[in-house]
Amino acid sequence: MSSKYVTIFIVTIPVIVLDQLSKFYIQKSMKLHQSIKMIGGLFDITYVLNKGAAFSFLADKPEGFTIPFFVIVSVAAIGIISFLFYKTEKNDYVSLIAFALLLGGSIGNLIDRIRHGAVTDFLDFYFHQYHWPAFNVADSAITTGISLFLFSLIFFKKKTE
Questions:
Q1: Which residue is catalytic, options 19, 44, 124, 139?
Q2: Which is the catalytic residue, given 19, 44, 112, 121?
Q3: Does residue 44 have an active-site annotation?
């Protein structure tokens, strides 16, 4: 097996497992909307369900629309990410890791959408009245993957001959 594909196993699989285990733990040990103070004025663990996308985008739409829509979008994104991973050169480690993180995060949230019709979020950061929407491990992997990919494009972009 190519070292390129080892990246899938050492990055994507742990992201999916950690994401699903953390969500399972939150669902089993907390009540919906329950919050546990971790660092006063900065961070709580708060169990919420997000029926929309980032920042609850489209969360107010009927489930008959949002569930199929987000499942289709997620499957399409997984296909595109997989294709980009396949096309990436084996020595472009930063992009490979970025795509593996994106893949793991996308699969983690897709599992939630299929199982629950919504994504379980619980990491709740804020500073006084400024509040960031709750998120999860999959969201963190997606954000890190996008950031790494952009970093790769900016700093490791190949010069065309």
A1: 139
A2: 121
A3: no
| Of residues 101, 95, 56, the one with CA closest to residue 78 | 101
Using only the alpha carbons of the chain, give its radius of gyration.
17
Q: What average pLDDT does the structure give for the chain?
A: 90
CB contact set of 113 (below 8 Å; sequence gap of 6+): 67, 70, 71, 74, 119
Work out whether the CA dihedral 11, 15, 146, 37 comes out positive or negative. Answer: negative
| pLDDT tens string 48-91 | 999 866 656 665 666 677 778 889 999 999 999 999 999 999 99
Continuous segment of H or E residues that includes residue 47: strand 43-50
**121 is a catalytic site residue:** yes
